[in-house]
Design brief:
116 residues, mainly beta, 4-stranded antiparallel sheet, 2 helices, 13% helix
């Protein structure tokens, strides 16, 4: 492994398929399933709303000119990491992946990026 790859591996931590953490990240990448990926600046995050819709948890992230809606199960890990800006990627997986995960694992089943 090259020195650059070793340094990169040491700076990024993948906690699950849906969430990648690293050192303080300047940007965050949103990867909806089979849709356009978005990269937004952490410095443009203005507000966060945490709510519950029936059995699903929901996070609304309000960036400058964009709103990101994240719905799923066990989203507490995302909420805990938001103040540190260490999240470098959030990824939605298809519903077929849900049975392969444990009941306490993070699972994002809806990830939408749109205008405010």
């Amino acid at each position: 492994m090259s020195t650059f790859s070793e340094k990169l591996a040491g700076k990024r931590e993948i906690t699950c398929m849906e969430l990648e953490l690293g050192q303080r990240a300047p940007l965050i990448r949103f990867c909806p399933w089979l849709q356009t990926e978005w990269i937004l600046s952490w410095s443009h995050l203005d507000a966060v709303s945490v709510s519950r819709e029936e059995a699903l948890e929901r996070l609304d992230l309000f960036f400058y000119h964009r709103r990101v809606v994240i719905a799923g199960e066990n989203l507490q890990k995302i909420v805990e990491e938001l103040p540190s800006s260490r999240i470098s990627c959030l990824r939605q997986l298809p519903e077929t992946y849900r049975p392969t995960l444990g009941p306490t694992n993070l699972f994002i089943n809806r990830l939408e990026i749109g205008p405010l």
